[in-house]
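Service request form, structural biology core

Requester: graduate student, group of Dr. S.
Request type: structure prediction, single chain
Budget code: on file
Notes: please return the result as structure tokens.

Sequence provided:
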Amino acid sequence: MSSLRARLALSTYRWLGTAIYPFVGSYLALRAAKGKEDPARRRERYGHASVPRPPGPLVWFHAASVGETVAVTPLIKEIRRRGIAVVLTTGTTTSARVAAERLGEAVIHQYVPLDFKPAVSRFLEYWQPDLAIIAESEIWPMTIVELGRRHIPQVLVNGRLSDRTFARWKKRPALADALFENLALVIAQSDIDAERFRTLGALPVMVSGNLKVDTDAPPHDPQALREYSQQIGSRKTWAAISTFEGEEEAAGVVHHALKGRNGLLTIVVPRHPERGDAVEAALSAKGLKVARRTRGDRLTPDVDIFLGDTIGEMGLYLRLTEVAFVGRSLFAEGGQNPLEPAMLGCAVLSGGNVQNFRETYQMLAKNGSAKIVRDVEMLAKGVNYLLGNDDMRRSMIDAGLETVQQMRGALTATMKGLEPYINPLVVKARLEPRGEN
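Core staff response, request fulfilled:
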């Protein structure tokens, strides 16, 4: 049983949120001005629904951003295939677009309500979900408490806890226990994640593997791929993807070092495309000619950098190369998901700061499909070696494809864990026909 102190902390959080709630409009307006909120759908953040609730059983999925949305897409499709309605909430405009592209009308998309009691209560009272499925590490106190108060089962899928997040929760064990005890089940990505959730008070916990391995390869526009491939011709290419500040300039340094040897084209895909202007300015200041996807610029022979400043087109950029550096790993911390380049036939390079994807990188590196670089100089040497050594590049690509295949199975394991919660809803759905939504 959780301590009185933890329950007092949760009560304080609730009443503080209630006091702040009337004044969050200016915060949302500021986010909307930066393109981080959809002004036309801002009421959804207060828990107001924008579409009717379909009849019959309904599962609420929450995925914070793009990565989580992609990860749970196959799981959502499996549940929809069983005739159960799904409302999917996300917290960003980019993830909303990804949900629309990958799921279309198969789900109802809403923006996640703010973690204040009035908004969460309004959302739950309207949608009345039979089950809540949360992706990865989204622990919102008021949402968890309100779901628990209504006896709605909560399952965390593809669960993971970064070193930093785990350390933060360990400093507040009573509060962690008061929250995690509300979870009916945690389905973790790895044994390490599972043990961390148990330490924080979650029971039961099972391990599934990473759902991102069971997703389809990111889609692409075949016509755009043909056009860019023709423009590139015989030039050698490499990509720096999911980059953070400083890593784009590192890619520019690598390009300068290697361009004279092989007529190189460097593809740079920032993790946050809204940084496109700043990235272009920084690279142009180095004397590099930048072509941007958003402008429809042609990849003429004198173009140095192809700036992929769009959302949802990673499948296009990765299909233009066989060597990919995965960012947020050289100067920033945490790393980004290396599975997409591996499944699309790229030899993977990364900096050493990959704490959030440690097990994935360990498996890729063990099988010879990913290599870690210490600094920009080592990155340049790695890119140069892979571009000039066809046998090694092909060996890494083949190893990556094989490793991804070996890692598959998380979707099956997750569905098995969810059976006690999903099967009764399947029966309920059959007894209460609900149309095509």
